[in-house]
Design brief:
By secondary structure, this protein is α+β, with helices and mostly antiparallel strands. The chain has a domain at 10-127: 3-Layer(aba) Sandwich (Aminopeptidase). It has five helices and eight strands; from the N terminus they run E-E-H-H-H-E-E-E-H-E-H-E-E. The protein has helices at 25-32, 35-38, 52-60, 111-122, 139-147, and strands at 10-11, 16-19, 67-73, 84-90, 95-102, 129-135, 151-160, 165-175. The protein has an eight-stranded mixed beta sheet with strand order 1-2-3-4-5-6-8-7, covered by helices on one side. Helix 4 links the parallel strand 5 and strand 6. The longest helix is centred in the middle third of the chain and has 12 residues, at 111-122. It is globular and about 35 Å long. The model has no long low-confidence stretch (mean pLDDT 96).
Length: 177
C-alpha cells in the first residue's frame, strides 16, 4: 500500500472539509445515533454502542488507515463544527470509494453536493476513479452523486448493520482523469 499522507483541509463555499479530530466525538456520536443517519449507511449500527464513535475516530487517525475521514466544519460561517462527515476509502490502483452523511436537520440544503464536489476537485488521494454506492430508498444521495458527475453503473446489494438486512443499492463511478 502507498504511504499514507497527511489529509489536507479543503475549502468549500459554506464550510471547510477538515480531518476528523478527537474533539468531534460528541457531535459525531449525536448525529450517527440518529436512526435516519445510521440506516442510510452500511456500517453504522443502531442503536449506537458506547464507544463506537470514538473507535471510528481513533481508526481514522491511525497512520496505517485505509480510509481518510473529514468533517464538514461550519464554524467558518458561524455554524456547528460538525455538519456531517465525508470519507474516501482506498480500494486499489488509484481508486477509492466515497461515502458521506449530513446531519438530518441540514438535509436538502445542498451540503452533501457541495462537499462531494469540493472533495472531487481537490482529489486528495490522487484517484483516477471514485466509486459510490447508495441505498435505493435514498434517492437524495443518488442525486448528490449524479449532480457531481457520477455515472450509474448498476444495481447491487449491501448489508446494512443498522437495518440488519441486505438492501438494494445503486452503484456509481466518476473518472477524475
Amino acid at each position: 500500500m502507498d504511504t499514507i499522507v497527511q489529509q489536507p483541509t479543503i475549502t468549500a463555499e459554506r464550510f471547510t472539509i477538515r480531518p476528523i479530530r478527537p474533539s468531534d466525538e460528541g457531535l459525531v456520536e449525536m448525529y450517527v445515533s440518529d436512526a435516519r443517519v445510521a440506516e442510510r449507511t452500511r456500517s453504522i449500527p443502531h442503536p449506537l454502542p458506547p464507544g463506537a464513535a470514538r473507535a471510528h475516530i481513533d481508526r481514522a487517525l491511525q497512520s496505517d488507515r485505509t480510509r481518510d475521514v473529514w468533517v464538514l466544519d461550519g464554524s467558518v460561517a458561524d455554524n456547528s463544527e460538525v455538519l456531517g462527515v465525508i470519507e474516501l476509502a482506498r480500494i486499489d490502483r488509484e481508486q477509492s470509494e466515497i461515502s458521506y452523511w449530513v446531519a438530518p436537520a441540514l438535509w436538502n440544503a445542498g451540503l452533501a453536493s457541495e462537499a462531494v464536489a469540493a472533495l472531487l476537485a481537490a482529489n486528495p488521494q490522487n484517484c483516477r476513479v471514485i466509486f459510490a454506492e447508495v441505498f435505493q430508498d435514498n434517492p437524495g444521495s443518488a442525486r448528490v452523486l449524479t449532480n457531481c458527475g457520477f455515472a450509474y453503473l448498476g444495481d447491487a446489494e449491501s448489508f446494512s448493520v443498522a437495518r440488519n438486512a441486505t438492501v438494494a443499492t445503486w452503484t456509481y463511478s466518476r473518472k477524475l482523469y
